[in-house]
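Section 4.2 – Deliverable D4.2 (structural model, holo form)

The reporting period included a commitment to supply a predicted holo structure for the target in complex with manganese (II) ion. Inputs used:
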Amino acid sequence: MTAQPIAVDGRRLWNSLMELAEIGGYRDPRTGLRGVNRLALTDADAAGRRLVLGWLREAGLSVRIDPMGNIIARRQGADPTAAPVVTGSHLDSVATAGAFDGCLGVLGGLEVVRTFNERRISTRRPIEVVIFTEEEGVRFGTDMLGSAVAAGRIAVQDAHDLIDRDGCSVGAELRRTGFAGDGPARFEPPHAYVECHIEQGPVLARAGLTVGVVTGVQGISWQEITIHGRAAHAGTTPTELRADAGIAAARIVLRLRELVDSGRFGALRATVGHLAVHPDLTNIVPARAELTVDLRNPDDEQMARAEADLAGYLSELEDGSGITLSTRRMARTSYVPFDAGIQQAIATAADDHGLTHLSLLSGAGHDAQELASICPTAMIFVRGEYDGISHNPREYSTPEACARGIDVLATTLVRLADE
Ligand code: GLV
Ligand code: MN
Ligand code: MN
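Output (structure tokens):
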């Protein structure tokens, strides 16, 4: 028999979100808004993890921490040998975040468990709530790091060896913060994975809807480009004698925008979010420039063509200009389609809660795209406000929208856990 729809305690969920947002919280000087800064494996991230770990234990879950610092909290099922139904997300944030990205999925999983405990709901399969490490990728350079190791795409040692801009490694920071766990780094395939996340875009709000069913995640290509020129005096060096790394960097930024505007690469998006020149002084021609390129595309073939076009342009820039360039791959994922059956289960749960919904592709990367390679997976999106702005203190979803998304999560999980 199909389980009845389950409504969670929206106020308790909201209070948990707001309490967690105080950890790493800061006041944005420009807007006066309260933001969140919990870069992966910093003291703030560790404090956030400890707070939520305490809540997971209070809810009666047994917790294990794996070698990537992923936290796996299990609510036992009537059949403990059955593959679990897993939910979760991440608590690490970009340096200028709001309270919802990732946190809604983790605290939503916790709220589901609290609700099941209160109502004495038991399931055949175990249910696991997972906190994945370094989803954002902004500290150590590779996004979805913890989930990529759990799914077997990245080797644990390679992940441990990644370093941040100060030379601190993932492995050392896991040990320093007390989250270097043990046991297998790869997950046994779960029965299913379902993640709830704020949409981070405008689609649901424009459609006047509260929740969405996510069909998949578009491809992501990240690389770092370093340009080597020649430092020189700004006042005395004739223009024709310069090898200005800053000019080459500016050309790359504009070229990327031209690629997007040309329409030749489908729905390509391109962003240079990091750009630094050295020695970074007013009266010195930049000797070196560093920038990151973030490309997104739902079509793998168009993505490969855009990458090839950029590579060709980089060679052209080098030719006879006195500058040299090197590139470093940071992250690369293809388009990931989600499981049709899990999408249907989410849509049915939304219907049963009386919520109209639509299906949409995710523009952002998520841990779910990694889990999709080892088990049937899909996601629930919750509507964001202010055009869905995210990675920004203005990121906001209403208490009502968060609660409705987690209602859908609860109903989907209870049904999958009884299969
Ligand atoms: C994750 O937040 C991303 O950059 O898509
Ligand atoms: Mn996220
Ligand atoms: Mn994010």
